[in-house]
Specification:
124 residues, alpha+beta, two-stranded parallel ribbon, 35% helix
């Protein structure tokens, strides 16, 4: 999928491509607490793929909730215990159940809109 997206953009004239964590959040089949692919997997695949010459890859830095700072921050593996990863699935679960995320995760007015939306879907 990451190759298809990059190639499509290149064919449309793009010279740069921001590479995220593709495929992000895919659980490891044995260790359910770990991801199957590491954070740089998408970029590494693209750098090896034929037909990608001339496309500059910009890595997407991984952000997570920094429990010490009480806000979102770029992940620092040397301080891994200070970070909490809140996946999209976990965030939607919080919103549906009315559970508030940690202070600093998201602006309160934005969270309210998100929570109201997911709670309304749950009622249908």
């Amino acid at each position: 999928e990451v190759q298809w997206h990059a190639k499509a953009r290149k064919n449309c004239g793009a010279g740069f491509y921001i590479v995220g964590r593709d495929p992000a959040g895919m659980a490891h089949p044995v260790n359910k607490d770990a991801n199957l692919y590491h954070a740089d997997h998408g970029r590494e695949v693209l750098q090896m793929a034929p037909g990608m010459k001339g496309l500059n890859f910009i890595p997407f830095r991984v952000a997570a909730y920094n429990k010490t700072k009480g806000k979102m921050d770029f992940f620092n593996p040397k301080q891994a215990e200070e970070f909490l990863f809140i996946s999209g699935t976990k965030m939607r679960g919080f919103a549906k159940s009315g559970t508030l995320p940690p202070d600093g995760f998201m602006c309160p007015s934005g969270w309210q809109v998100l929570a109201e939306h997911y709670q309304s879907l749950a009622k249908k």
